[in-house]
Amino acid sequence: MDLPVMPPVKPMLAKSVKTIPPGMHYEGKWDGFRAVVHRDGDEVVIGSRTGKPLTRYFPEVVEAVRRLLPERCVVDGELVVAHDGRLDFDRLSERIHPAESRVRTLAERTPARFVAFDLLALGDAALLDAPLTERRAALEGALADVRPPLHVAPATTDVEIARRWFEQYEGAGLDGIVAKPLDLRYQPDARLMYKIKHERTADVVVAGYRFHKSGPVVGSLLLGLHDDRGALQHVGVCAAFTARRRAELVEELAPLVMDPPDAHPWAAWGEAAAHESARRLPGAPSRWSGKKDLSWVALRPERVCEVGYDHMEGDRFRHTAQFRRWRPDRTPESCGYEQLEEPVSYDLDEVLSGP
């Protein structure tokens, strides 16, 4: 491979802001794997956000790149998987599997798409120093004839359209809007764009905690919600406490520690069979966790806290929730899924059809 921009490339990133800023270029925020695609003839490399190759996990995308992208190019975008008209991150995550036979099976069962939103090189020309407006025009020209599973991300400079997308696109599984200054040069691994994500709150049961990597202080609280059968399901964690607060929480939660945890609703978490039969338990092994210590301290599920979250992935929080406050006025039994706001459904094909 001999391109003017060579792999690996760490993509340009975005920092969070509360509102959509005016006077910029706007796109949906895709909930998938960020990926930079390099093509030089038959040679194709798909690099992850960290620069590690994803090529072997998405053979159907590699084949589409060879058929549909320009002969020599470097394209920034997002790998996504759709199911029932919306993005499905869980199914996308299943694609990272060590067995080639499993990868091939999933490529047929849950094929991925690549949504392109920036062009870093075309032919012998590197475009990193070109302003966004020029790169976007070059992207639209170079990819004018692409078809599924490759797409060009819809974009607009109309802030009112962006605000409408912010509300509509969530129903298709996107998780917000990305705003980019019009004169922005491409700077790998720099947070120069802006992301605006949905934020909601929920009252959840605190049913355990994990220690922080720095020592015997709280790293994250394990959160639960009751399903329609009354069973407490693990829905995620909240974190981002100060060092002082982590130490305080150990003392504060000490009276609730269950040792042994036999009567805890999630006591079977260490049994592999339990993860297969239960809806949601903490500590489930995954290809992402590797050798990470997933053990946790069980607490009597008696305390309730309010957390901020952006959106759900199935029956759990898609990202780490943010602790807001304790809710002594709420009973654990009152914390169920029914309190969660559901976005209005919006078909992913409508998103990809553009403004």
N- to C-terminal distance: 36 Å
The largest sheet, given as strand count, sense and whether it forms a barrel, is: 7 strands, mixed
CATH class annotation of the largest domain = Alpha Beta
Count of strand segments: 19
**What's the number of helices?**
8
Please state the structural category: alpha+beta
Structural domain count = 2
- Average residue-wise pLDDT: 90
Structural account:
By secondary structure, the chain is an alpha+beta fold. 19% of the residues lie in helices and 34% in strands. The chain has 2 domains: 13-198, DNA ligase/mRNA capping enzyme (D-amino Acid Aminotransferase, Chain A, domain 1, 2-Layer Sandwich); 200-339, Beta Barrel (OB fold (Dihydrolipoamide Acetyltransferase, E2P)). The protein has helices at residues 59-68, 89-93, 100-109, 132-142, 159-168, 243-253, 272-277, 348-352, and strands at 13-16, 25-28, 33-40, 43-47, 72-83, 86-87, 112-122, 125-126, 150-152, 155-156, 177-180, 191-196, 200-212, 215-226, 232-239, 297-309, 312-313, 316-317, 321-326. The strands form 4 sheets. Strands 3, 4, 5, 6, 7, 8 and 9 form a 7-stranded mixed sheet that branches. Strands 1-12-11-2-10 form a 5-stranded mixed sheet, with helices on one face. It has a 5-stranded mixed β-barrel with strand order 13-14-15-19-16. The chain starts with 12 loop residues before the first strand and ends with a helix. This is DNA ligase (ATP). It catalyses: ATP + (deoxyribonucleotide)n-3'-hydroxyl + 5'-phospho-(deoxyribonucleotide)m = (deoxyribonucleotide)n+m + AMP + diphosphate. One of its GO terms (molecular function) is ATP binding. One of its GO terms (biological process) is DNA repair.
